[in-house]
Amino acid sequence: MNPDQAGGVFTAARQEFARWSARLWRPLGEIATGLARPMPGEHVLDACCGAGASAIPAALAVGPSGAVDAVDVAEGLLAEGRREAAALAVPQLRFLQADVLTWDGGPYDLVQCCYGVFFFPDMDAGAARLIGLLRPGGRFAVTTWLAGGMADLVPIGRAAAAPERPELAEAPRDPGPSARIDTPDKLREWLSTLGLHGVTVHLARFTQPLQPDDWWTFLLGSSMRGFVAGLPDDALHRVRSRFLDALARDGRDTLDASTIVGIGHRPA
Ligand SMILES: C[S@@+](CC[C@H](N)C(=O)[O-])C[C@H]1O[C@@H](n2cnc3c(N)ncnc32)[C@H](O)[C@@H]1O
């Protein structure tokens, strides 16, 4: 997804994304930040920060002597993050609208990126650029979905929308870059290939029981929203029915958001 598309899709998704913050994004952001361990006084870049799920815990961890640049293309999600942060008195946290692939702040002690690298048009080049913003010895922390969980929903969402959007049926069905980093071994190998040292990888099992209405809100609050962008209400209704029917046929009553967090150091 190019940065303009990501900005449009996630800004449109603002309301539904925010409804998932407390149940999904924020607890996962706290897990990721707990593993990346920002320390008091550190300078952190939270790349693809969304509504601040990991940027807010990072800002609390670095404290007033540190700084967190939270960068995202989606102004709608940044507005949610600013709204939440306002209640916390964290002046060390700045929400900034930018394509993080052209961001030139730093040098940072820690660059963290939760569920963002697989949106980059070139995942390897994008990650290398983020690593280049670290001071020597700084940490790069990448959070991604475990195989067999979240990513399995995308083809179901695409198939539900395809009858309304023929271009979706024609699009190539390759699994996309997330499949290159969807196991602990693959993520470790990828981070090592990027030249990082001392790579550690952690697996966090995370599931949520779901009702049918939750599934639809989830689709509208995620990148799958791009499948239904611009459809009129009657077409949306048909996509919703197909999506929920397919999930019911699969016997899915749980959202599996199990996650892998990989951390490596830029060589000193
Ligand atoms: C699945 S959301 C995750 C948001 C957040 N990290 C979290 O865990 O809640 C992915 C985010 O990546 C952002 N994004 C994708 N490509 C980007 C880019 N090139 N520059 C900045 N943000 C980007 C999207 O706008 C979206 O907010």
From TrEMBL:
Alphabetic keyword roster: Methyltransferase, Transferase
Coiled coil: none
Main EC class the enzyme belongs to: transferase
Family annotation (InterPro entries): SAM-dependent_MTases_sf (IPR029063)
A Pfam family assignment: Ubie_methyltran
Example of a GO MF term: methyltransferase activity
CDD domains, per database record: AdoMet_MTases (cd02440)
Domain of life according to the entry: Bacteria
Record-annotated membrane-spanning stretches: none
EC identifiers of the protein: 2.1.1.-
Biological-process GO terms, alphabetical: methylation
Stored SUPFAM superfamilies: S-adenosyl-L-methionine-dependent methyltransferases (SSF53335)
Methyltransferase is among the record's keywords: yes
Protein name, as recorded: Class I SAM-dependent methyltransferase
Lineage, top ranks: Bacteria, Bacillati, Actinomycetota, Actinomycetes, Pseudonocardiales
